[in-house]
DNA sequence: CAATATACTGAACATTTGTTTAAAAATCAA
DNA sequence: TTGATTTTTAAACAAATGTTCAGTATATTG
């Protein structure tokens, strides 16, 4: 169990968490000072040292904005929402166009959906049923640079969107379903007809009715 | 419509997004240089200027780690949101007690979660895997007066919570799993050891990692 | 072709940001 | 009360980080 925080330490810790969630980066020491009307940077600095000693944050000396919050994902006090587009039209050749013709947006509670999602899309077939992903589910997609083999991705092929397992081998991209009755698709890397939107980070399914 | 990015600009833009997602803060210019083996900070710097001019990022002069990705804007309005408790202890004899010892709350966007949910609970076993409900999923429960046979319900038996199919026949309540290896449970109607919390209206599953 | 944008290097410079030291006041527990 | 810890101020310094200028090379476009 971590050592308890003083009132001031907790105030500053909460501020750091809130700032980080809202701004996608931690505050500088001087920004903390401004928030709490500190006249000296050492006011905030010494509290940071205490927070680090007690195990709430980790820092690297001399690096700007280098407060790393421990157990960031277990945080239950913060309520923060991110609004992401729900896309409904698909265009592999021009992915940006998909974001101009939306089916509205969804607000997600970042306490639960904690991977900086990029957009949402409705699952259009049962090709991944074996993985518990069904037609009609809403898939939350997180864009990432490197996608590992085996990851479940959202792919756009021409004007169709699909959820499939991803495999890249010898510059060939395979989109592999998990259920029978669906074909594995094969593409050359760089094929303009294929756009990998990102990894599926969450599934939301409506059950009732 | 945003102006298209060059290959290099896109590489760097993707790197910034990935870094930000993984580190909860944007990279410094020198960190970008290191990633791409640039010898001069201006190599990255000039690309940042291009990304800003094309509307993909926003920056503030002279601030460390001040790349703001335009897609990542958080929304703080609370319209159409409902906050529900996430329960983690179970007590069939005294259900109200479960709501005093919470594991926090979740905010749901009522555009998606549109059935007046009552509370949320983590799925504790794989007894409903055939229905695509896995251990670790978050189940959103909606209380309702009439529960039809076949509905998927959240039931509390003594001090344990379960997701099962519901069946009421001849004043006997059956809790039926969908996967092999799990037993059907049978109760007399009115049994104090059983509390039906409501129907499962949504399932949220984290996939990545 | 010329003009323009992109992609980089190199070196200095400016500003922000983190760090240290010294000290005073406030708080809290023994 | 006494002593330890916390909180805060103040000032100077060190390091990181962003910015600018000058220049080369390559591709792209009209």
From TrEMBL, chains A, B:
Q: Keywords assigned by UniProt?
A: DNA damage, DNA repair, DNA replication, DNA-binding, Hydrolase, Repressor, SOS response, Transcription, Transcription regulation
Question: Which organism was this protein described from?
Answer: Candidatus Kryptonium thompsonii
InterPro entries annotated for this entry?
Answer: LexA, LexA-like, LexA/Signal_pep-like_sf, LexA_DNA-bd_dom, LexA_repressor, Peptidase_S24_S26A/B/C, WH-like_DNA-bd_sf, WH_DNA-bd_sf
Q: Where is the LexA repressor DNA-binding domain?
A: 3-65
Single GO molecular function: serine-type endopeptidase activity
Annotated GO biological process: DNA repair; DNA replication; negative regulation of DNA-templated transcription; proteolysis; SOS response
Q: Which SUPFAM superfamilies match?
A: LexA/Signal peptidase, Winged helix' DNA-binding domain
Can you name this protein? Repressor LexA
Q: DNA damage among the record's keywords?
A: yes
Q: Where in the numbering of this chain does the Peptidase S24/S26A/S26B/S26C domain appear?
A: 86-198
